[in-house]
Amino acid sequence: MSTKETSRWERQTWPELKRLAVEVPEAGIHLQKSRVLRREKDLPRLRAAGSYFDALFGEDPWYRELFSDFRELGADELPAGIASGCEFGSVCINTMLYLPWLVGQCRANGVAFRRGQVAHVADAAGLLSSPQHYDAGQKADVVINTTGLLASRLGGVADAAVHPLRGQVVVVRNEAPYMLTVSGTDDAADEMCYAMTRAAGGGTVLGGSAQRGQWESQPDANLAVRIMRRAVALLPELVPAGAGIGGLDIVRHGVGLRPARDGGVRLEKERVAGAWVVHNYGHAGWGYQGSYGCAERVVELVDEILSQPKL
User: Which residues of the sequence carry a binding annotation for D-dopa (predicted)?
Assistant: First the structure.
């Protein structure tokens, strides 16, 4: 999550995600209460604001302004070892539904999709949807660079600040009573504890990790056990009484490589090898929650480019 100073994208995105959850069920987003817990032993680190996820756990978080139902949890609602916490009405996205829905929305608005390979970002200007246009040498006016993690390797970009934050999860059929995120774990500094139940039978995602610079795509069995143990300890409602992690009905194990970037998201225009490029990458784990705000800024930058005389 961003800091208050860089929260524009999330502030602009939240109203649209909430609208979709209420008005567009086919988008695969639903409303869900969220609880954020701050462990006592994490408070010195959180107050120093030194880590990627710390903004989420601020003791006076900027995002309290977004939610009319935001409240601090009472002492009687806090598990052992938790110094404080808050609760608010958020949303959870079933990405298996949401991404295809977005593709459909694009097609309904005249977007054409073309698959190709490029070694340099400027080459993408030639990948127009019509082979006739491509053969005639016509090129796009603007390239939007949303290459995520591979912005670190793409010609014309090769951003050395981009790196993976490896996240591992366990998806289970058990339902969580609310979305939960905890400020840290006793297992490792780059491991996390969170749980969220996706809409429309998407299962409950248990996490996780944030392993900087790790490209491994296969799940770690030992980490999976730690993830499940942490989830059951903090959310005993997930399983029948006394069942432990054996009470979890596992759907699958998953790994994702978050496209993080030192210095935060890169959202700017640039002239590269004769082509105008608008960069929009480096969102790490907050890409969905900042997506509409970032898209609005991309449109602003494209408009700036198109309003200039062509070179």
Answer: 258, 285
Give the model's pLDDT for residue 3. Answer: 74
Q: Which residues of the chain carry a pLDDT beneath 70?
A: 1, 49-53, 129-137, 310-311
d(CA 63, CA 86): 11
147 is in an annotated binding site: yes
Q: What are phi and psi of 193, to 5 degrees?
A: -130, 115
DSSP characters over the chain: ---GGG-HHHHHHHHHHHHHHHH-GGG-EEEEEEEEEEEGGGHHHHHHT-STTGGGG-SS-GGGGG-TT-EEPPGGGPPTTEEEEEEEEEEEE-HHHHHHHHHHHHHHTT--------SBGGGGGG--S-HHHHHTT---SEEEE--GGGGGTSBTT--TTEEEEEEEEEEESSPPSSEEEES--SS-TTEEEEEEEPSTT--EEEEEE-EET----SPPHHHHHHHHHHHHHH-GGGSSTT-GGGG--EEEEEEEEEEEETTS-EEEEEEETTEEEEEEE--TT-TTTTHHHHHHHHHHHHHHHHTSPP-
- Residue 118 in marked binding region: yes
pLDDT recorded at residue 139: 84
pLDDT > 70 fraction of the chain, expressed in percent and rounded: 94
Alpha-carbon distance of 42 to 185, in angstroms, equals 9
Any binding-site annotation on 181?
no
What pLDDT score does 126 carry? 86
Number of Cβ within 10 Å of residue 269's Cβ equals 16
Q: How many angstroms separate the most distant Cα atoms in the chain?
A: 70
